[in-house]
């Protein structure tokens, strides 16, 4: 086994150590009774008092829309913000494969504990036990909620909801609506929220981008937004603020995220004092359409559900990579996941499937056109499934995904194997939250992908929708009342110095973007940053590479503030101005991600340090050194954050090296 990493003393130039961090909100009882006890312990808010309390929710994807609907139904005054023209355009619609729940309809050995175990193991033992068990426990309620809303889940012949498997598990627990699960779930949450809009408990603000958090006497009390159509800067005050703004995968420029996805809301909160947990934990999804050229601005995800029936392979010989795959006989194909991991085969977790695809291509056995010196693709083949099930059955399960692939590539996946390659997808890092989903700023909460809490170093498939709806429908409404019960709160005036300072900082930042008048567009800086991040902080990382990346990002950030060109004005629709703000935040986040990756001198989940691997090339963790959450504090100096460590204690699951063989 290899372990030649530098001593931590050599990293002192990049960060300083802070005080340890402890989450004290989870009750000290058996984990199976913890959530029930927490709900009982949390203070109540009577209906009359709820009408006096104001809640801001930023983001109206699954987590935000479900939270807004639930809080509005409970009687709170809710303001919900999104930068899209409709909440239905939230990126949640892109998670199409399915949603996990431990209902055990198939009687195949599933349970709340097994879902809990699979999630902690899948995250390579870097997630918090207490939050994950609650997620597994709440999962069954989500399905009942969505069925009651009319979500058209697939059903099996007996009338029960159907299930399929996803990577990292050996049971079928994933509920799905063809290949449109995220879209159908979002429609359910959106309709529930719109019901509250009609009832007057939720005010909806579309085309509004949050640009700052208002913190008064150390407590979150509102946000500053920009109306993206008029440029008007607005102040919105409340008793509590909830961020449901998704992940930050677009720091890599090319990712499966919608192009508008950004980190600004979370990063503004971080700069105001909210700790950022495990920022380097980025998921690389193995089932994406490969890069086709420099013209691309995003990548397309092909759902992991395809790995249920599709078989992944590459030619055994490099000289066969130019051949039509249908002309390569069975004996000359390497079904490498089935060969290396016979127990899980094509359903290994995403991080393992991604890294092995990279390995095959690095060996010279990739397929498709060359990108640089290598072919960046492997085959996902449905020939055996079509022969076994019939084309009509495959169409019923995956038809919209096949149609999407055909439109993008011009190839018919019913006739020719799909080509796939890993791409940046989900981010497991995010704002640090406690068991109540509250950040280190009192009164500021983070839900869904915006927080770090549930997935460790690798998210299992079909768990993003589960976490978003668990947080929005069931967890947040039960935990936030413990805070709101302290109200009614003293109102904050718009001329309060903290409010004025927050608004002025937004205006000054916009003025600065417009006044630089350099020569480079925001997109050009973004693309260059993405290339650095993918090359040095992607699937494989090294000590030297990460140090180089930090230097490159610092130089790029300096040039950004000196040579940025933003056309147009601030008092109208200006997408160049919007991008400039987002790229500025990505540049700071990218540096923190590299610092986090540099300090974590182990291979863990999808985060492979070349210096730390087993003799057979698998990831090698170092639990004696790194079994903790890395929660980073902004100090005013983006180049020197403070690291707070929250030790991860495993009382209910044995901590051990993962094996899917």
UniProtKB/TrEMBL annotation:
Q: Name one GO cellular component term.
A: plasma membrane
Pfam families named in the record? FAD_binding_2, Succ_DH_flav_C
One biological process term from GO is:
anaerobic respiration
Q: Which GO terms describe its molecular function?
A: electron transfer activity; flavin adenine dinucleotide binding; steroid dehydrogenase activity, acting on the CH-CH group of donors; succinate dehydrogenase (quinone) activity
Needs which cofactor? Answer: FAD
Going by the entry's taxonomy, the superkingdom of the source organism is recorded as Bacteria
**Topological type in the membrane:** Peripheral membrane protein
Which keywords appear in this protein's UniProt record, sorted alphabetically? Cell membrane, Electron transport, FAD, Flavoprotein, Membrane, Oxidoreductase, Transport
Q: Which reaction does it catalyse?
A: a quinone + succinate = fumarate + a quinol
Please state every residue range assigned to the domain named Fumarate reductase/succinate dehydrogenase flavoprotein-like C-terminal.
Answer: 526-660
Q: Which EC class, in a word?
A: oxidoreductase
Q: Does the keyword Cell membrane apply?
A: yes
Report the EC code(s) recorded for this entry.
Answer: 1.3.5.1
Q: Report the subcellular localization.
A: Cell membrane
Instruction: Give the positions the UniProt entry annotates as the active site.
Output: 350
The similarity annotation says: Belongs to the FAD-dependent oxidoreductase 2 family. FRD/SDH subfamily.
PANTHER family per the UniProt record, alphabetical: SUCCINATE DEHYDROGENASE 2 FLAVOPROTEIN SUBUNIT, SUCCINATE DEHYDROGENASE FLAVOPROTEIN SUBUNIT
> Can you say what this protein is called?
succinate dehydrogenase
User: What is the protein's species of origin?
Assistant: Janibacter alkaliphilus
């Amino acid at each position: 086994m290899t372990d030649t990493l530098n001593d931590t003393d050599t990293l002192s130039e990049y960060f300083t150590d802070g005080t340890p961090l402890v989450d004290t909100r989870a009750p000290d009882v058996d984990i199976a009774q913890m959530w029930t006890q927490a709900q009982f312990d949390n203070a109540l808010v009577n209906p009359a008092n709820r009408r006096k309390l104001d809640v801001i929710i930023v983001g109206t994807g699954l987590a935000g829309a479900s939270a807004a609907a639930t809080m509005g139904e409970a009687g709170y005054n809710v303001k919900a913000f999104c930068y899209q023209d409709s909440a239905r355009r939230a990126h949640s619609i892109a998670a199409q494969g399915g949603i996990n729940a431990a209902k055990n309809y198939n009687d195949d050995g599933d349970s709340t504990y097994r879902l809990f175990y699979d999630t902690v193991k899948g995250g390579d033992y870097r997630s918090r036990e207490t939050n994950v068990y609650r997620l597994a426990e709440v999962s069954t309620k989500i399905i009942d909620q969505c069925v009651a809303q009319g979500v058209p889940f697939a059903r099996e012949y007996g009338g029960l909801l159907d299930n399929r498997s996803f990577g990292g598990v050996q049971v079928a627990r994933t509920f799905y609506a063809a290949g449109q699960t995220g879209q159908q779930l979002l429609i359910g949450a959106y309709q529930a929220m719109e019901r509250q809009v009609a009832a007057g408990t939720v005010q909806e603000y579309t085309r509004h981008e949050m640009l700052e958090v208002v913190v008064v006497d150390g407590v979150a009390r509102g946000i500053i937004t920009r109306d993206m159509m008029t440029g008007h800067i607005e102040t919105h005050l409340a008793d509590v603020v909830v961020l449901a703004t998704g992940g930050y995968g677009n720091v890599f420029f090319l990712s499966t995220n919608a192009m508008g996805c950004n980190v600004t809301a979370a990063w503004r909160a971080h700069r105001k004092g909210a700790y950022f947990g495990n920022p380097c934990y980025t998921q690389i999804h193995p089932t994406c359409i490969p890069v086709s050229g420099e013209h691309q601005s995003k990548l397309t995800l092909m759902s992991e559900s395809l790995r249920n029936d599709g078989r992944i392979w590459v030619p055994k010989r490099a000289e066969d990579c130019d051949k039509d795959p249908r002309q390569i006989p069975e004996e000359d194909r390497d079904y490498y996941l089935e060969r290396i991991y016979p127990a899980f085969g094509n359903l290994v977790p995403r991080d393992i499937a991604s890294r092995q695809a990279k390995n095959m291509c690095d060996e010279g056995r990739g397929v498709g056109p060359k990108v640089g010196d290598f072919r960046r693709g492997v085959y996902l083949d449905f020939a055996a499934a079509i022969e076994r099930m019939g084309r009509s059955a495959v169409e019923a399960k995956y038809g919209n995904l096949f149609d999407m692939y055909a439109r993008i590539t011009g190839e018919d996946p019913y006739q020719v194997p799909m080509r796939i390659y890993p791409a940046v997808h989900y981010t497991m890092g995010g704002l640090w939250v406690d068991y109540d989903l509250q950040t280190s700023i009192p009164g500021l909460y983070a839900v869904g992908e915006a927080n770090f809490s549930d997935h460790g170093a690798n998210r299992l498939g079909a768990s993003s929708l589960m976490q978003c709806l668990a947080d929005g429908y069931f967890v947040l409404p039960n935990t936030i009342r413990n805070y709101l019960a302290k109200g009614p709160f003293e109102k904050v005036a718009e001329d309060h110095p903290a409010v004025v300072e927050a608004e002025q900082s937004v205006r000054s930042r916009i003025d600065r973007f417009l006044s630089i008048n350099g020569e480079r567009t925001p997109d050009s800086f973004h693309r260059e940053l993405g290339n650095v991040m993918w090359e040095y902080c992607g699937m494989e990382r090294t000590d030297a590479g990460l140090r180089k990346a930090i230097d490159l990002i610092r130089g790029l950030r300096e040039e950004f503030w000196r040579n940025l060109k933003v056309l147009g004005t601030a008092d109208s629709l200006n997408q160049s101005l919007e991008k400039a703000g987002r790229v500025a935040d990505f540049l700071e986040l990218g540096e923190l991600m590299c610092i986090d990756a540099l300090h974590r001198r182990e291979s863990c989940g999808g985060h492979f340090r070349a210096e730390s691997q087993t003799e057979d090339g698998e990831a090698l963790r170092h639990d004696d050194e790194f079994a903790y959450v890395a929660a980073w504090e902004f100090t005013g100096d983006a180049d020197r954050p403070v690291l707070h460590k929250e030790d991860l204690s495993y009382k209910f699951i044995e901590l051990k090296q993962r094996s899917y063989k």
